Amino acid sequence: MTNLDATTMVLVLALGNLALCALLTFFDHGPVRPPALSAWALSKQVQAGAWTLLAIGGAGVVPEALALPGGYALLFAGVAVEAGAAFEQGGRHGWRRPTLVAGALAILGFLVCYWIDEQGLRSVAASLLLGGFYLAGAAALATGWRNASLLQRFLAIVTAVLALVVAARGLSVLLLPGGWRWLSSELLRQLSSIALYLLMLANGFGMLLLGREAASRELARLEVVDPLLDVPNRRGFFNALAPWMALARRPGLPTALVVLDLDDFKRVNDGYGHPAGDTVLRHVVDLCRRQLRDSDLVGRLVGVEFAILLPRTNADEAALVAERIRAAIASSPVKSERALISMTASFGVTVIRPEDSTVTLFQRADDALQASKRAGRNRVSQAVVAPVEA
């Protein structure tokens, strides 16, 4: 690679990172930018400044003695933050301090090599350090491989391969000073430059796509999950109920449904405020979960009405579960900022019948719930058993 080619490649990397910074300025990321995207945007800004400084230093605009160490110091800081963004994307949120330490050590190590400058030692250090940071980013993207999306897996593999190409330039100088047959130092230098360019593109657009992918998953989740209580909403509960409705048409153990409604909940919102009401709802859901098995499911139907699905449970067993939950709610006042709030709940219990639709099932459960309300509330009622035909 000639000196002009090297300068041109540095200029391309500078302009490419500047273009990504411009794209981020106009990117619609919603009211709150995800932490991984914010960290990655910062890394692109730092790397854009680094490559720009190296480019103008190579063109003689800034003295090389200032541009080279300054540009590489910024570059190591930028790729360190980019690796941190990958860790944030992978769910490792404590990346800031290790990244700061690693970036500082990389800058110090490069400056020592730059001052020594023995047999191109600074080039060896630069390629190994850059490759190491990108490999760390690839490892971060590979976190939770089984649950990762295909896009995240692809980015992890591509980043690892390209990082090895970048590091190979330094490794070849250490292990194969004279080159190895057709794998000359010149060829490795060109491959390293191409790999850095591809890393800029792959990680750039990959991070934006991962952000969009995560936003789409969260949107799909919110369609079936109550955001306040983190339990299925009406749609999510009905989706989970559907296969058990189908199984009820076959011989086997019954499946029970419990509906509960908090008694006189309006006084909580009116007397203590909606934040206290939210605290009460979270407390009730937590009490329900403590009384349920892993296979059971609690969901929020509407307002303060909840439903509990109890697979492989008959009506009497479901009534006992409902009674335990009723007692737990009645005996566990909720501590708010202003007072202790006592709550009770009324319950309706039924089992899924072979001929049931969701309408008839919930109508029967609701009839049992209303029976509890009419009987004075804070009690459990079972649905009326259908008469056996002769």
Automatic annotation (TrEMBL):
Which class of enzymes does this protein belong to?
A: transferase
Catalytic activity field = 2 GTP = 3',3'-c-di-GMP + 2 diphosphate
Keyword set, alphabetical order: Membrane, Transmembrane, Transmembrane helix
EC number(s) on file: 2.7.7.65
Could you tell me which SUPFAM superfamilies the record lists for this protein?
Nucleotide cyclase
Residue ranges spanning the membrane: these are 6-27, 66-87, 99-117, 123-142, 154-174, 194-211
The answer to whether keyword Ribosomal protein applies is no
Q: Which domain of life is it from?
A: Bacteria
Q: In what residue span(s) does the GGDEF domain sit?
A: 253-385
Protein name as annotated: diguanylate cyclase
